[in-house]
Design goal:
Radius of gyration: 20 Å
Structural class: alpha/beta
Strand order of the largest sheet: 2-1-3-5
Strand content: 5-15%
Oligomer: single chain
Shape: globular
Number of helices: 13
Length: about 325
Amino acid sequence: MSKINLSSAKSGAVTIGLPRAMLYYRYEILWKNYFSALGVKYIVSEPTNKEMIKTGSAYAIDEACLSTKIFMGHVNALIGKCDYILIPRVSNFGFRRNMCTKFEALYDMTCNIFRKSGQKFISYNVDELAGLTEEKAFISLGEELAFSRKEAYSAYKYAKKAEADHNRNRVKTQETLYKKGGLKILIASHSYVERDAYIGKPVVTYLKKMGVVPIYADVVDRKDALKASVKASPTLKWEFSREIVGSIQINKDRIDGIILLSAFPCGPDSMVNEMVIRRFAGIPILNILLDDQDGTAGLETRLESFIDILRFKGGDL
């Protein structure tokens, strides 16, 4: 990590770039409130578009998942527009609470890919198995930005409360969707897939046009979801996957079907989705693998067929 100019950071002259991809969709509220509390400016890359995916694909290796390629496109879009680009390293939150390895390697990988760009990057490290908690990570980040330990701690606590309130309100709002009429479809997907403007949002938008009520599996009380996931798989170790599976376990009796939405070729999803199909065999499930192809006709046909089957099953066709 490059050393930050102390006077510049405290005077608000430093601008942090936030790529609108990957962990941004989980930590948007935390990051924005943290930097705002410290008086540090930030900018966010524009929503994903075709050109970003094309550019990101050129930077990433062929075997990288689509989400990683999209991330590289967002990093490239921020090059030269900010002083530092934030790319955290998040390894785990404890035993069997691991993150996909891409979140461990993303900082080093990105720094290497853009090593000749002149762009500087900043990170923080979460690895609870090694004693590096999120709180410690944000305190260290604040100190790196030239703030005192007390200032960094206060900013983190403020941001953490804002994040908790935001998540609580999202869960509360989503609960009202179960009372609405129409088919209830649980979208079992990572937030950086389902909320991405180019690959995930079009799926949700199309479902709404068909009169379906889309419900996000990842919008859930995370502690409750982690506990519930054990019923489906006591050995599942990926944090995001456990939350999604736990959400399915909690809400399985309140939905009409599940759509597994993944970015090609996600390693964890390739295994977890198969487990979901087997564990929740009594629920109609559609498994969709998204790639960087432009055409949507085939995808829309699959969605229409799935919805027609559910409506036929419910006696509405």
